[in-house]
Specification:
Mean pLDDT of chain A: 94
Helix content of chain B: under 10%
CATH topology of chain B: Immunoglobulin-like
Helix content of chain A: under 10%
Oligomer: heterodimer
CATH superfamily of chain A: Immunoglobulins
CATH class of chain A: Mainly Beta
Structural class of chain A: mainly beta
CATH architecture of chain B: Sandwich
Low-confidence stretches of chain A: none
Largest interface: A-B, 23 and 26 residues
CATH architecture of chain A: Sandwich
Number of domains of chain B: 1
Mean pLDDT of chain B: 92
Largest sheet of chain B: 6 strands, mixed
Number of helices of chain B: 0
Strand content of chain B: over 45%
Distance between the termini of chain B: 37 Å
CATH class of chain B: Mainly Beta
Strand content of chain A: over 45%
Order of helices and strands of chain B: EEEEEEEEEE
Chain lengths: ~110, ~110
């Protein structure tokens, strides 16, 4: 069975600085998707960025980028120029190619200090 | 258009009572998912509906949990004889088709069992 691990329960960053959130996963599959979701106190899950395992190029969405290391089964999220609105819980998630269900890590709470 | 909606937003029930949670997916979305999120934890997959296919119930924690979906619209998650450990936020998500990798989440229902 696939598992997702986020080893940092809490992280903090100064506004305008850069922070990296870690995620590792375990799978025997070769084709899958990886995601980072943001969950603010409103509970609304928001998709931040996604990566397809067969693509070697790291995904980027504005200030958010990932470092995808397939052999190491690592998928970290880098947030550049952190903003107060980035404060939230961040979840890493895995999805097999042939099924829709997402497997989530335990989450990292990000605090942004003004 | 409208996003995924869930009702009620909050539900308090006594131990041993049955509860029904409702999810209205985005119109036209064929896939619908239920997840459970315990306090401070990641999301756990419960059940997944895809069109007319048999649902994937592999995440349901016990036979007290069941879910139905009417065609490609509303879904109801039912928990019978609720226990205190059922207290959690129940999140619903929908996506446009099986191979679509983006799930759109509702705001969740916070269930408290006293």
């Amino acid at each position: 069975a696939q598992t997702v691990t986020q080893s940092q329960p809490e992280m903090s960053v100064q506004e305008a600085e850069t922070v990296t959130l870690s995620c590792t996963y375990d799978t025997s599959e070769s084709d899958y998707y990886l995601f980072w979701y943001k969950q603010p106190p409103s509970r609304q899950m928001i998709l931040v960025i996604r990566q397809e395992a067969y693509k070697q190029q790291n995904a980027t969405e504005n200030r958010f980028s990932v470092n995808f290391q397939k052999a190491a089964k690592s998928f970290s999220l880098k947030i550049s120029d952190s903003q107060l609105g980035d404060a939230a819980m961040y979840f890493c998630a895995y999805r097999s190619r042939n099924t829709g269900k997402l497997i989530f890590g335990q989450g990292t709470t990000l605090q942004v200090k003004p | 258009g409208a996003g995924v909606s869930q009702s009620p937003s909050n539900k308090v029930t006594e131990k041993g009572k049955d509860v029904e949670l409702r999810c209205d997916p985005i119109s036209g979305h064929t896939a619908l998912y239920w997840y459970r999120q315990r306090l401070g934890q990641g999301l756990e997959f419960l059940i997944y509906f895809q069109g007319n296919s048999a649902p994937d119930k592999s995440g349901l924690p016990s036979d007290r949990f069941s879910a139905e979906r009417t065609g490609e619209s509303v879904s109801t998650l039912t928990i019978q004889r609720t226990q205190q450990e059922d207290s959690a936020v129940y999140l619903c998500a929908s996506s446009s088709d099986r191979v679509s990798y983006e799930q759109y989440f509702g705001p969740g229902t916070r269930l408290t069992v006293t």
